[in-house]
Amino acid sequence: MQARNYFRVMTICNLRNFSSGVSSTANISNIFINRNPRNLEKLRIGYKPDGYHVDKPGKNYWHNLKLNISNQYITATINHFENGVVLKASTSEWCVKKQLYKTKDTSAFINLGRVLGYRCLQAGLTEISFDKDSVKQNGKVALFLKELEEAGIHLKEPRQYKPTYPWDQHRPEKPWEVTE
Amino acid sequence: MSRALFKLCNYTLCDNISPIFVRYGHHLRGKPPGIAKSLQEKLTELNYKDPQIHFKVDIGLPPPQISKTKFFEERMQTIRKNRKNPDMEKLSRTQQLQINMEETYADWLNTVGPYHIRQIAEHYGIFEHLFGDAYFHAFVPLKIAYENNDTLYPVYYGNTLKPDEAASKPVVEFENNDNSLYTLILTNPDGHLTDNEKEYIHWFVANIPGNTLDNGETIVEYLQPFPPKGTGYHRFVFVLYKQNKKLDFSQYKKQGKCLNLVDRTFSTLDFYRQLQDDITPASLSFFQADWTPSLKQFFHNELNMKEPIYEYDFPPPYIRKQEWFPKRRPFNLYMDKYRDPKQINKEFLLKKLKDIHPFKPPPKPLPYPNAQFIDSKVPSWLKTEIIKERMKWGRINEIE
């Protein structure tokens, strides 16, 4: 589903006592198109599927985390709702396996969490949805998630911002107007 | 309800007449579920692309050749060594085994890294917007870091940086074993102010011998990122090309700092098409940047232009055609949807200005706005409107 990515020019800002050497701003088009496919998702206005609320696992995410535990290895993938697998880390990769004693013990889970967190930060994916309630509190997966959070990944995605119309009761804050 | 009961009575009373089942207000539209296609099936059919026509071409370097027997032997030896290491076993058992991230990253770059980088770059639409139907693997490890106030800001595969952090040109390092020449280009495929199919070139260094840019020939000087306000995150892509021979880039050469944006207009696809016999993309790295307040000064002082400010253009809401006699709809709310919103706002504003004295401060907001008397003769719809005004709900927010 293609969301439109138009940005309409609101104002052309002028410095108050600006000298006369201004090149003409007439050559700026009124409509600006940012082609970055991840931009609207980062601004929280991109399309996010809702799915049915009774679906398990739900479909309400931009990026989510999936963990596949096989007989010998652990593989963690970051999935996008449209593009499928976009990032992965596994203990079967030589770069991880080389420094591990076993590829499926608790230490492997902890170290895989660190590796995946590092890769997510490198790829600019800092918010990833994951159903934490489905995980046992003191298990290996909980340790994996803890390492991921320590690396700086939020395991919850913000809600999609829906536009407000004049007849709406409230005016929620626009995410892009909040200054850090 | 009464009609349904009447039907039921009629039916039970007249036994000799065969019953006729009529389901009022129920229509089965289209084919029943199970036979009709689901949304998922319809979408896959809609988005199907014929592989005979839509296919991607690899334009990159071939993967490095490694001897398989030697490679497996080395790996097996390392695994056996690890398994016999009692310290490692103890660390692993006590959950204190911490792998070295730097080493992992370096190994990753030399093994599966290039394939993972391609996956994430496709997710960010890099190849689609720079090279059209082509892709490549980054087999040459590229290390880029901006240095600002003694802090390093590395560039990986989509991490976010602020334009202030990328104000001056970064330190670039890559592996160059066979003394061939390289070209490095930094472009922004999202930032063009007039033509969204084009890019702005931010940096162009060509004929680079060795593994640092010091001896390269600068074709276009470095320009910091300047994403305009309200346009969100822009991609800034470093592409490293391997050259066959020394090339002449005089037609791309820009004199001085080149602060005229028209001169910086660039198209990677056109550039690559022209030189594809002599250059091969070897590596890729990109970051994302969004607007910061300091860019206002940059637009005014450096680019010598007014700063454009944008806002996302949401699609207009769907309002269905007005009816002559709308049933079961509140008349005031219904009519308001078909009026000029500016006129409605004007009425709210005039009402507000009526109570405002030009020289006195505005009255304090009431602590309990709904605890005010409303005349009992006031109709209920108007009461609701008064309450909405007092509570600042709905259309009054348009002028607040």
Automatic annotation (TrEMBL), chain A:
It holds the Pfam family Ribosomal_L18p. Keywords: Mitochondrion, Ribonucleoprotein, Ribosomal protein. This is Large ribosomal subunit protein uL18m. Signal peptide: none annotated. Belongs to the universal ribosomal protein uL18 family. GO terms for biological process: translation. InterPro entries: Ribosomal_L18, Ribosomal_uL18_bac/plant/anim, Ribosomal_uS11_sf. It is found in: Mitochondrion. It comes from the Eukaryota. GO terms for molecular function: 5S rRNA binding; structural constituent of ribosome. Its main location: mitochondrion. GO terms for cellular component: mitochondrial inner membrane; ribonucleoprotein complex; ribosome.
From TrEMBL, chain B:
Pfam families: PBP. SUPFAM superfamilies: PEBP-like (SSF49777). The keyword Oxidoreductase does not apply. Gene3D superfamilies: PEBP-like. Keywords: Coiled coil, Mitochondrion, Ribonucleoprotein, Ribosomal protein, Transit peptide. Belongs to the phosphatidylethanolamine-binding protein family. Mitochondrion-specific ribosomal protein mL38 subfamily. This is Large ribosomal subunit protein mL38. It comes from Rhynchophorus ferrugineus (Red palm weevil).
